[in-house]
Amino acid sequence: MTEQKRKLPQVRNIQSLGKLGIFHVEALDVKFSNGQERQYYRLAAANDAVTVIAVDGQDLLLIEEYAGGTLTYELGFVRGGIDDNEDLLPAASRELGEEIGYQAQRYTHLTSFYNSIGYQTAQMHVVIAQDLSPLEQMLEGDEPEPLTLVRWPLAQLDQLLSHPRFRDSRNLAALYAFRDYVNAGKL
């Protein structure tokens, strides 16, 4: 299939509608090359975020944390925002220390993706952390309560994909990329 080169629409105006938590809500007035005009809305984040796939021997280290969207506790990977003037791998290291109290000797950037290209500006960067050891003291983070650490056997990656509390699309995308990485013999 050939990709058609198209003229990008003209963004005529970006209006701030206010701040909502870590996001700035914006309205965009867009005019397409065929004359059609539309208004788009997006959540503009100041920074990207990181998801950390922590591998400890033959286990993944997951967290169980409260999710406001589902109003229950969900399973997922360590993740959080990248601070101002912070690079990707130091952000992964910081989040690992804050959320589960571990450090890693080796970090590998696996992939990056957008959560939703239709209305978000931030990317999610997925990092694999290996050769883990516990910190003497957990780093202070911004969590409202301690997170529960859950060990998941690497041999059961497919079962994690269908786990009823592992359902955040960011975690699923990261896990599919990680599974491909493992199946290619790169771990």
From TrEMBL:
Residues 45-174 form the Nudix hydrolase domain. Its cofactor is Mg(2+). InterPro entries: NUDIX_hydrolase-like_dom_sf (IPR015797), NUDIX_hydrolase_CS (IPR020084), NUDIX_hydrolase_dom (IPR000086). Keywords: Hydrolase. The keyword Chaperone does not apply. GO terms for cellular component: cytosol. This is ADP compounds hydrolase NudE.
